[in-house]
Write a structure and sequence with these properties.
Number of strands: 13
Structural class: alpha+beta
Number of helices: 3
Shape: globular
Largest sheet: 8 strands, antiparallel
Length: 257
Amino acid sequence: MRTSPLVITAFLFCACNNAETKQEVKNDSTPLTTTVSETHNMLTEAEKAEGWQLLFDGATLNGWHVFNKKSDGSAWKVEDGCLHLDPKEKKDWQTVGGGDLMNENEFESFHLKLQWKIDTGGNSGILLYSQEDPKYEHSWHTGLELQVLDNERHGDRVNPKHRAGDLYDLVSASPETVKPALEWNQVEIKCEKGKLEEWLNGTKVLEITLWDDNFKKLVAGSKFKDMKDFATFTKGRIGVQDHGDKVWYRDIKIRKL
């Protein structure tokens, strides 16, 4: 069947208008965005002005060592700008080649920010106020721990004070804002004049006064009740826990208060 030139012209005109309409809808629904490369382990000019300092430079283990030792251990590595525990480099569950990794500085009142990512079924922790002394076998004999955990798979998920963000065995974090295993979580911890506050992924999840009578009752009802020096120090080291599972940390920065 032959088609007249008039019909063809009309068809092309409508087709062009339809194509333009579809393009306009696409542009409206998917606005242009500028992709900016994400940078880590760096301080902004504003952070520098506020007195923040990096505890991890993203390239070396400078400033870090295994608890009660001078070395950093073969299991702790820098991987893709992250402080990473590689359990296959260890000869036992925790100590040979690994162990809790401590920062060389001691802090009293501070604001700490970092990001963490835990392996599937994994467990780790952020340690506060730990004391290094041969009489203490582990960092958690004196220091507090904020739990790092895969809440979906690790066995500790059934204990309401052993989940991600919890002040381990003492206080539950609420609400639950942790992300699934192998996804990055952002945490902020503020300790000032005995007041401990924690934000996980932008939401405040924990607040408690340390060292008062109520806190002492919590310790007395915990697994730490027989450790006479547990959580009694108001100044100490910050660390990350080796619990035998893969874990990654980055953007570790602190500001003294």
